[in-house]
Write a structure and sequence with these properties.
The protein is α+β, with helices and mostly antiparallel strands and 356 residues long. 28% of the residues lie in helices and 18% in strands.
Length: 356
């Protein structure tokens, strides 16, 4: 049985108290939301905090508040609450992403903030301590089995041994959906409160993957007016009832009355160390979502989907599925039947299983 290394535990009752504890304790403290990612990582010695600061007694983090025509979503709301909340149905991609995270049990515990801050993943990293000892450690976590990157002794990425950086991938479901919706997040510390675009929270670095200081806590997500927007989220994984994404797509368009695209956003997840913005979506502006425009966008967008061999399935096949996802998602947003469009992904999966 894998067990966590020894740690202390505190459960403050306010965001201010959480911020004060983090400021005093420094990097040795970590915030505990639902614990569905952090606790398994602790058991594998990938993260070894000396202190866990629980958020379960902070009621303000569980609130959903109107913000004019938009909303403010507390980072402590569970994924199950977000998927089922009637106020969030107008933000379609978010509900769909939250509903596809892991299992029902995990969604009942896992939080929005935890999913947004999810540790990057890799086939060589997300293994138990003994497995990693057998092959030697990677640069994401060194030979001490935990700690901060500057303490690592190993300097190799087993995905790309000649590379000076870590290529672990971002596997958060909610981030691509929320970035497509134009979300902003609030970060609170004992020194200041700042609001940034959610896209700016992520770095293209498998180790230092968040632009967030150790003394900061992500407290809420802000979404603007959903009027005129349509959005969706598509996810590829081997086991539909459980797995992390090995490819995902958040898509959102704002349409004029005649169907002309006024704004468009496409985000790939699980293909890099951060959610990848597909600038090709800008080419849709001023056009209707006809088949020709969608095909052009898919051809341009898929060039950014460069999956590496550090998750499930063959990387070349995942890249081909990325094109199908763009086409399917955009067809869904123009009003095609999503039940029929879902066959695109299932057909690709069947071909893979059959070896085609």
């Amino acid at each position: 049985m894998m067990r966590c290394s020894p740690f202390s535990y505190r459960a403050p009752a306010s965001v201010e108290e959480v911020a004060q504890i983090l400021a005093a304790e420094g990097p040795k403290a970590m915030v505990l939301g639902g614990g569905t990612d952090l606790v398994p990582n602790m058991k594998r010695r990938q993260q070894t905090p000396a202190l866990l600061v629980s958020l379960r007694r902070v009621p303000t983090l569980r609130r959903l508040q109107d913000d004019g025509p938009g909303v403010r979503i507390g980072a402590g709301m569970t994924l199950a609450e977000i998927a089922a909340h009637p106020r969030l149905r107008a933000f379609g991609a978010l509900g769909r992403a939250a509903a596809q995270v892991a299992t029902t049990h995990i969604r009942n515990v896992g939080t929005l903030g935890g999913n947004l801050c999810l540790d990057t993943r890799c086939n060589y990293y997300n293994q138990n301590y003994e497995w990693r000892t057998a092959i030697d450690f990677c640069m994401k976590r060194g030979s001490e089995g935990g700690g901060w990157p500057e303490k690592n002794e190993a300097q190799v990425c087993w995905v790309a041994p000649g590379s000076p950086r870590c290529w672990a991938v971002s596997s958060t479901d909610c981030a691509p959906a929320l970035i497509a919706l134009g979300a902003k997040v609030t970060l609170v510390s004992a020194r200041e409160t700042r609001e940034i675009d959610l896209a700016a929270l992520y770095r293209d670095d498998g180790i230092q993957y968040l632009d967030k200081r150790p003394d900061e806590i992500l407290t809420e997500v802000r979404l603007g007016d959903p009027a005129g927007w349509r959005s969706t989220y598509w996810k590829l994984r081997r086991r539909e009832s459980f797995d992390f994404p090995v490819l995902s797509l958040g898509a959102a368009v704002r349409l004029e009355g005649d169907g002309t695209v006024r704004e468009a956003r496409l985000l790939f997840g699980a293909v890099a160390s951060h959610p990848v913005v597909a600038e090709a979506a800008a080419g849709l502006v001023g056009h209707r979502l006809d088949d020709a425009a969608i095909e052009r966008c898919a051809d341009a967008a898929v060039r950014l989907a460069k999956p590496l061999d550090n998750t499930d399935f063959a990387l070349g096949w995942r890249k081909r599925v990325a094109r199908s996802f763009v086409i399917g998602a955009l067809r869904e947003l123009r009003g095609d039947d999503p039940a029929q469009l879902g066959l695109i992904a299932r057909r690709q999966m069947a071909l893979r299983v059959l070896g085609a």
